[in-house]
Design brief:
- With 232 residues, this protein is α/β, with parallel strands linked by helices.
- 47% of the residues lie in helices and 15% in strands.
- It has a seven-stranded parallel beta sheet with strand order 3-2-1-4-5-6-7, sandwiched between helices.
- Helix 2 links the parallel strand 2 and strand 3.
- Helix 3 packs parallel to helix 4, helix 4 packs parallel to helix 5 and helix 7 packs across helix 8.
- The longest helix is centred in the middle third of the chain and has 28 residues.
- It is globular and about 50 Å long.
- The two termini are 29 Å apart.
- The relative contact order is 0.14.
């Protein structure tokens, strides 16, 4: 069975994607910082009958990243790495003049540095897979200028660029930066707590990711809404 590592998998998009992959027969290594929430998510995902390993920890910790890769290797290797764990830099979001630099550093560490570190750790196994794939979960804030989204958007723009370069350097892999579009997640609620407008559930975005895995287009940046429209 194919094996995937998904970070930030205890809720939101990470959990929804984990359930969809498990339903397709994937074995999974799931990461999140909160052990209780991750254990609950892993239990629900394992109901599909595949092997699921919950490895709680912080992706900014090199030892934890090594644990994730070691867990995947015990399951048979790594066919897919999803860098989904994210930090905002400030909760709620604030204008750049007020953005705490320590918060910005945290966003860069989680969204960019840790993502690259996990790719580096996983590359030897990804290269041996017949369909080695890296997905960097991006944001429209990486490409568009939205007030108060500067720090987070800058970190995701950096992640996009790392993904683009990795795609050039690793032609045997597929490397996709994916903008999932608007979703109703805890991350968004923390970012803009006063915004009560309804947003799509994360599960509604998952078919866009599955389409990429099915069709395996060239490495590059993709927007989930466009992929979903293409399915209609």
């Amino acid at each position: 069975m194919p094996v995937a590592i998904i970070t930030g998998a205890s809720k939101g998009l990470g959990r929804a994607l984990a359930e969809a992959l498990a339903a397709r027969g994937w074995d999974l290594v799931l990461d999140a910082r909160t052990e209780k929430a991750l254990t609950e998510a892993a239990g629900a995902v394992s109901a599909y009958g595949t092997r699921v390993r919950a490895v709680p920890g912080d992706v900014t910790d090199a030892g934890h990243r090594a644990e994730l890769v070691a867990a995947a290797e015990k399951l048979g290797g790594i066919d897919l790495l999803v860098n989904n764990a994210s930090a905002l830099g400030a909760e709620p979001l604030v204008r750049l003049e007020e953005l705490p630099l320590e918060g910005f550093r945290r966003a860069l560490e989680v969204n960019v540095v840790a993502a690259l570190g996990l790719v580096q750790e996983a590359l030897p196994l990804l290269r041996t897979s017949e369909a080695g794939t890296v997905i960097a979960v991006s944001s429209d804030a990486a490409a568009e200028a939205y007030e108060t989204w500067g720090g987070y958007g800058a970190s995701k723009a950096a992640l996009d660029h790392l993904a683009a370069v990795l795609g050039e350097e690793e032609p045997g892999l597929r490397v996709w930066a994916v903008d999932p579009g608007d979703m109703a997640t805890d991350l968004y609620a923390a970012a803009v707590p006063d915004d009560g407008d309804p947003r799509p559930a994360p599960a509604s975005v998952v078919p866009a990711f599955l389409r990429l895995l099915d069709e395996r287009p060239a490495s590059g940046r993709y927007a989930a809404p466009a992929l979903l429209e293409g399915q209609r």
